[in-house]
Amino acid sequence: MGRITPKEFQQADKNPLVVVLDHVRSLYNVGSVFRTADAMRLAGICLCGITATPPNVEIHKTALGAEETVEWKYFEKTEDAIDWLRKEGYTIMAVEQCEGSTMLNNFIPDRNKKYAVVMGNEVKGVQQSVVDMCDGCLEIPQFGTKHSMNVSVTAGMIIWDFMVKSYLHLC
User: Fold this and answer.
1) Residue 79 half-sphere exposure, CB side, CA atoms within 13 Å?
2) What do you get for the CA distance between the two ends of the chain, in Å?
3) How many CA atoms lie within 13 Å of 52's alpha carbon, on the beta-carbon side?
4) Helix (H, G, I), strand (E, B), or coil: what is residue 126?
5) Which helix (DSSP H) or strand (DSSP E) does residue 90 occupy?
6) Measured between alpha carbons, how far is 169 from 15 in angstroms, rounded to an integer?
7) Residues 103-136: tens digit of each pLDDT
8) Which end of the chain, N or C, is surrounded by fewer C-beta atoms within 10 Å?
9) 3-class DSSP state for residue 95?
10) Domains held by the chain: number
11) If phi over 0 gives left and psi between -120 and 50 gives alpha, with beta otherwise, what is residue 128?
12) CATH number of domain containing 109
């Protein structure tokens, strides 16, 4: 299928997007985000708080080896990940429903910036202290009776949107 090898992946240019998982409890969701990050050749993942880290059998079940190709870093406190990313030059966006959030369909990333997107806990969302540290909030428009989606599905939608709007020209 013309896929690059894990070694080629590690040496390849990455799309300047990092996913931050803020206290994500499901190891299957973590693995799914790893797999999507690999598929879109993202710069990395920050795993924070109770979010499990590789190596882990349950993460591997959905990551299918992407946990070995995608760079990741663990932070006990998500706020520390935000501080680190800011020092690395990232613009940080929480994916959360909040006052003043930008609907994803209206968000146009700046191709000259590096971004990090923070995905929250499956029940509680992104911690308010973390939202307060971010440069803004992105919200996915929803039209049904539910007002939330699975974190790995949300991550896939956000990542794809960034790819289409900013990064696909790099691949």
Assistant:
1) 6
2) 16
3) 19
4) coil
5) strand 90-95
6) 10
7) 999 999 998 999 999 999 999 999 999 999 999 9
8) N
9) strand
10) 1
11) alpha
12) 3.40.1280.10
The verdict on residue 1 lying in a domain is: no
Q: Which of 35, 41, 30, 33 is nearest to 4 (CA)?
A: 41
Q: What does the alpha-carbon distance between residue 137 and residue 104 come to, in Å, rounded to a whole number?
A: 9
67 belongs to a structural domain: yes
**Sign (positive/negative) of CA torsion 101, 106, 110, 114?**
positive
Give the pair of three-digit tokens for residue 83: 């501080």
| Two tokens, residue 63 | 């990551």
Contact between residue 74 and residue 48 where contact means Cβ atoms under 8 Å apart: yes
Q: What is the pLDDT of residues 74-108, one digit of tens each?
A: 999 999 999 999 999 999 999 999 999 999 999 99
Residue 122 within any structural domain of the chain:
yes
Measuring CA to CA, how many Å separate 58 from each of 32, 72, 116, 123?
10, 17, 25, 20
Q: Which residue has the tokens 């919200």?
A: 139
